């Protein structure tokens, strides 16, 4: 090998040690939706029906939401159920941690809506059946076995209608191992401020969607990677200003506690397919 070839090889080898290497791929496509702007019903439409119940899911579907956000946990005997907090006290007539209760005990609990209607804790299987072909699921993966959850999703024929929200790094690795084609979402570290920091974080944990923007100067990078941004605007008193301020960031959708009002607002203002943001912003 000649001197020039030796020198070129040395430069390539040295550059591989000196320069950061980012392997982040362009994000995978998310579940197909009818609308250009995604409305996510937080814990279902739960202003009158209890959160995470089949009734809350049905109402979100009836209103025309694109996704329903659901929280997944596990009972003592290994059954997958929908529950946001780790205790049943806050939402039902029962007491204790969901992980300390058997499924048969959980089925006997009652959840009361503000309209006086009575409901049960929903099983994941029933939620999947309810959503199939009708609404996508934004699955907040609280505390469950990945293999078990994915088998339930596959059995229901819902693999192309689920976006999984990751709460910790180990969950990410587990989902990548069990279901490498499942789109994954999480929050970006709020301390990230530069393109290099963002790419480094995504090299460690590549994502297909995020629910926050650490710094608005990072939006062009996020867009270039094909990631969707679904901001959390949910609160007791959301306003049109909250919605428009979020949309002006050029996001793809938002999670709301008021899906009915948000959808009406979007339709009235001809924004159901999103707000046109000039390129470069």
Automatic annotation (TrEMBL):
Domain of life: Bacteria
Protein name according to UniProt: Glycerophosphoryl diester phosphodiesterase
Keywords from the named record: Signal
Gene3D superfamilies: Phosphatidylinositol (PI) phosphodiesterase
SUPFAM superfamilies for this protein: PLC-like phosphodiesterases (SSF51695)
PANTHER family xrefs: GLYCEROPHOSPHODIESTER PHOSPHODIESTERASE 1
Any GO molecular function: glycerophosphodiester phosphodiesterase activity
Pfam family, one: GDPD
Annotated signal peptide: 1-23
GO CC list: plasma membrane
A biological process term (GO) from this entry: ethanolamine metabolic process
GP-PDE domain sequence ranges: 37-266
